[in-house]
Amino acid sequence: MKIVADENIPLVDAFFEGVGQVVKRPGRQLSAADVNAADALLVRSVTLVNATLLANAPSVSFVGTCTIGIDHLDTDYFQENHITWSSAPGCNALSVVEYVYAALCHLDVNWQGKKFGIIGCGNVGGLLYRRLKAQGMDCYCYDPLLTAEQNPDLYDLDTVLSCDIISMHTPLTKTGAHPSFHLIGAAQLARLKPGTVLLNCGRGPVIDNQALLEFLQQPNDVRVVLDVWEPEPVICRALQEKVKIGTPHIAGYSYDGKLNGTEMIYQALCRHLKKDPEVTLKQLVPPLADNRRVFADGDSWAALKQLIASIYNIAADDAAMRALAQTAGADDEVFGRGFDNLRKQYPVRREFHNYLVECPDNSHVVSWLNSLGFNTVTRESK
């Protein structure tokens, strides 16, 4: 069989070469001509898979996206044309949660004792919620698709917007009873209290970016972190200048998260073909050789900031985007290519569970680090 795959899917050859011939193409430029003889199509979120792409590809019987979101897939078309499809829910949830931690550490915002709001409590937001609750945090969640039995900390949107920190993790929907498109506009931004930190790691158009730009052009001390934009890859550079941290849609780009997505779609294609999987992630990726870190005695918050920055330097991602904006100037084509290249050439970032942290023999510190996802070994306090 012929498998057409986004060239940026990691380990795509190692996983799928035993299934069929793998042909790799740039995901954002994938065309109908690329897929007309394919049997399976493997994509990421940058490829819109619909009738336009597949109308002349009658042999495509499987579409897999190595991502959580599916707003780029026309699943109604798939159903009408008997095409099996699969996504990778939760594959990069840890990566996004750790992005949130890294952003807050870089901004020197200790979330302990703060009112933490989460908009969208699915795979990513739900994991963030569970991690924060394990740390003893007060969480205020908005997700109209959940019930109180599923999440006892559900509130209306206005209540969540009154929190000290607000992290957004919603998929993009434009239909249904609760569409998320432009969920946050001028009226909602005006409700933010001074000093709020607003993060969007879900989908760019969930925030009206023009309204956000106008809001940030007014005197206020709201700090905004954006990993997703409206639109991409040619984002509003004026808005980029105003946010405290701006990154090129890489919150979920940990090496572990991307590999999880590849493995999940490999397993889904095997199920579709009624074939037993022959490859596992553990076989392909050895553990880190240099995985030990030291958590300093003394100020725990300062030590945590240092620890997280040593594993994930989010400031470097922000700096790369700002350097791109300077290089590209007003040239949208140059910026768009640069945005995609930052994603394509993204350095390896490993998740916290890959590291063993040597820390003081302090039950609070140990519990805190474990709830953040680190493995720990204690040492005697000096």
Automatic annotation (TrEMBL):
Residues annotated as catalytic: R203, E232, H249 (proton donor)
D-isomer specific 2-hydroxyacid dehydrogenase catalytic domain mapped to chain residues: 31-276
Does the keyword NAD feature in the UniProt annotation? Answer: yes
SUPFAM superfamilies found in the cross-reference section: Formate/glycerate dehydrogenase catalytic domain-like (SSF52283), NAD(P)-binding Rossmann-fold domains (SSF51735)
Q: Does the keyword rRNA-binding apply?
A: no
Question: What reaction does this catalyse?
Answer: 4-phospho-D-erythronate + NAD(+) = (R)-3-hydroxy-2-oxo-4-phosphooxybutanoate + NADH + H(+)
Cross-referenced Pfam families, in alphabetical order? 2-Hacid_dh, 2-Hacid_dh_C, DUF3410
Q: Where in the cell is it found?
A: Cytoplasm
**Which EC number applies?**
1.1.1.290
Q: Where is the Erythronate-4-phosphate dehydrogenase dimerisation domain?
A: 299-373
- What metabolic or biological pathway is this protein involved in? Cofactor biosynthesis; pyridoxine 5'-phosphate biosynthesis; pyridoxine 5'-phosphate from D-erythrose 4-phosphate: step 2/5
Keywords in UniProt for this one?
Cytoplasm, NAD, Oxidoreductase, Pyridoxine biosynthesis
Q: Which GO terms describe its molecular function?
A: 4-phosphoerythronate dehydrogenase activity; NAD binding; protein dimerization activity
For the ligand (substrate), the binding residues are: S45, T67, Y253
Show the GO cellular component annotation of the record.
Answer: cytosol
Q: Which residues bind NAD(+)?
A: D143, T170, D227, G252
Please state every residue range assigned to the domain named D-isomer specific 2-hydroxyacid dehydrogenase NAD-binding.
111-251
Q: Which GO terms describe its biological process?
A: 'de novo' pyridoxal 5'-phosphate biosynthetic process; pyridoxine biosynthetic process
Q: What assembly does the database describe for this protein?
A: Homodimer.
Q: Which HAMAP family match?
A: PdxB
Q: Which family does it belong to?
A: Belongs to the D-isomer specific 2-hydroxyacid dehydrogenase family. PdxB subfamily.
- Task of the protein: Catalyzes the oxidation of erythronate-4-phosphate to 3-hydroxy-2-oxo-4-phosphonooxybutanoate.
What is this protein identified as?
Erythronate-4-phosphate dehydrogenase
What is the species of this protein? Cellvibrio polysaccharolyticus
User: What does UniProt list as this organism's lineage?
Assistant: Bacteria, Pseudomonadati, Pseudomonadota, Gammaproteobacteria, Cellvibrionales
